[in-house]
Amino acid sequence: MTNSELLQYCMAKAGAEQSVHGDWKATQIKVEDVLFAMVKELDERPAVALKTSPELAELLRQQHSDVRPSRYLNKAYWSTVYLDGSLPDSQIYYLVDASWQLAVNTLPEEKRRRLE
């Protein structure tokens, strides 16, 4: 999977908005100003930072060498996933969906209803 393919998938999510974080040289994908994905090149490889529960983050890191704690985000919740690594595309898409849902869950009820 490429960064472009992942960005296309992320931007298809309801309410998704894209911006560039200059300091991190990354493309941020947010829903109602809540970050759910950050796409960038890391170590010259395509990668995405996604939010999960701390338990899932730890499990993924134990099982896959291509899943690591995110450098700039809360390491308990955010993991960087290399897109050209051992995780199948279907699992990466699942993690994007879950990260989007976690972001949506933080929104006020009225905004959530408009998105779901």
UniProtKB/TrEMBL annotation:
Keyword Translocase on entry: no
Entry's Gene Ontology molecular function annotations: DNA binding
Listed Gene3D superfamilies: 3.90.1150.30
The entry's keywords: DNA-binding
Annotated InterPro entries: YjbR, YjbR-like_sf, YjbR/MT2646/Rv2570-like
Pfam families linked: YjbR (PF04237)
Protein name, UniProt field: MmcQ/YjbR family DNA-binding protein
